[in-house]
Design goal:
With about 290 residues, the chain is of the alpha/beta class. The protein has 10 helices and 12 strands. Helix 8 crosses helix 9 and helix 8 packs across helix 10.
């Protein structure tokens, strides 16, 4: 789907195995065309076929890519990086906070056991270029700026295509009613507030959400902040009503009930997000 003159959205459907069956998901990869084409994120394993087919449809070959940027290290963003790297030979770029999990996916599987991890990721890939806040890429006719937006993960980045007013937010902006996944609750709040302050944004392109433009952009960010706050309130309420400490997954299920979310999204990753809320609340009480 073409978004602007030089930006294309490639929607990639996939499924995640859970204890309660398959969970249907999708993720977006983004293609920036122009003088120096760039791919942002690579979807899950086997997404390379979808991405290459789309590139060919707009008159590009994989070897035309000048750069592959990974917004962070999670499976639905790095899944096809090895095969796309093999056919394109372009450098892979990511924030230093994500490097270890991109270059060693077995380490990621051990430290962050996502359901069905190995079915979502082809394997490891070297990070050729370490990105940080304020880095800019001169793409000839376009400029792409790196914005460090931690919270979802410590090295999560967003990207701003200045000339076309396009903000690629990765998973930095939680989608209201969707899977609550973050490593740092406070940082996630701060990242959304920071993105909300950016000027002249014409398009908001997240990984788990459909493209947004105009007044919808601020609404999506306001909804994300409201959602994060409602999650924190639900965690606090469940915790206060508990007579004894519960297993994190059982605690997760109680919070999901409070939020009105389906039980099939209960998994160790969402459970860890709620444990992070507990840590946040305990730190508040110490102040």
């Amino acid at each position: 789907m073409q978004i602007t003159k030089n930006v294309h959205a490639i929607k990639i459907p996939f499924q995640v195995k859970t204890d309660l069956g398959l969970l249907d998901r999708f993720v977006y990869s983004y293609l920036i065309t122009g003088e120096s084409p760039v791919l942002i994120d690579t979807g899950v394993s086997s997404s390379d076929k979808i991405i290459i087919k789309y590139m060919e449809a707009v008159g590009l070959k994989p070897e035309d890519l000048s750069l592959m940027i990974l917004s962070h290290s999670h499976p639905d963003h790095i899944g096809s990086a090895p095969s796309l790297k093999e056919v394109s030979h372009c450098p892979v770029a990511a924030h230093g906070g994500e490097q270890s999990w991109i270059e060693d996916t077995e380490l990621q599987a051990k430290e962050r056991p996502v359901p069905g991890f190995h079915s979502l990721v082809q394997g490891s890939v070297p990070v050729d270029m370490i990105l940080d806040e304020g880095d800019e890429f001169d793409l000839g006719n376009l400029t792409l700026e790196v914005i460090h937006t931690p919270g979802h993960s410590r090295g999560s980045i967003s990207l701003l295509l200045k000339e076309e007013g396009v903000l690629f937010s990765g998973d930095a902006i939680p989608l209201k009613g969707d899977l609550p996944i973050y490593e740092d609750y406070q940082a996630s709040l701060e990242s959304v507030h920071r993105l909300k302050e950016l000027k002249n944004i014409k398009w908001l392109l997240g990984s788990w959400d459909e493209p947004h433009s105009g007044d919808d952009i601020i609404k999506v960010m306001d909804d994300a902040l409201e959602y994060l706050e409602s999650i924190n309130e639900a965690v606090q309420k469940v915790n206060e009503n508990m007579a004894v400490d519960k297993d994190p997954l059982e605690f997760c299920k109680l919070v999901l009930i409070e939020l009105g979310l389906p039980m099939k999204v209960a998994n160790p990753i969402v459970a860890e997000s709620f444990q992070e809320n507990l840590r946040y609340l305990r730190n508040l009480n110490k102040e």
